[in-house]
Amino acid sequence: MVEKEPWQKYIKMVLARKSDTSFMSDIAKGISIETERYAIPHIFPIMGDTKAAAVVMRVGAIYARNRRVPISNEPTQTFGKSLRQLAITVDGRWPNERPTTIGHRVLLLPSMNFDRAVDAINGLVNWCEKEGIPINLYQLTKLLLHWGNGLSQNSMAVRNQLVRDFYAGTIEQEHSDAKL
Q1: How far is Cα 167 from Cα 83, in angstroms, rounded to an integer?
Q2: pLDDT tens, residue by residue, 82-122
Q3: In the chain, how many H helices and how many E strands?
Q4: Which pTM does this prediction carry?
């Protein structure tokens, strides 16, 4: 992927250095404001002291904490689609039939503030890692960069797109995707 934005350069660097345990330990500490000081030396030279850097730092930390999660480079592989695959794997059924364990979590995400959403997403990515479900880290970054405060229409639209992606599609599409 050709980086057009500084955040893309940072995510690419984090993905490329996944075997560097010291580096990944610093990046993993970017998960919260209490420990982010360890990740700052790695992101600020690329992104500066910006609001976007704080968001991207959290995404890097999510990956650093779950670096065995398969990575998808498919641009259409949204986080909601990854969670749908996880729901089918964990619950053994299509999530539209009745609420699933994962489906309940997905429905709660749009109501969460940024920090709570990061914690919940970290747990869901950990679950994807355990089940071998791929995520697209670039798509996850875009989602969180536009998470907002949940008060504006744009912010709610971004948050609700996660739910739409989770429930979109058909059972037939999911079965054909699983065979690929």
Answers
A1: 10
A2: 999 999 999 888 777 677 889 999 999 999 999 999 999 99
A3: 10, 0
A4: 0.90
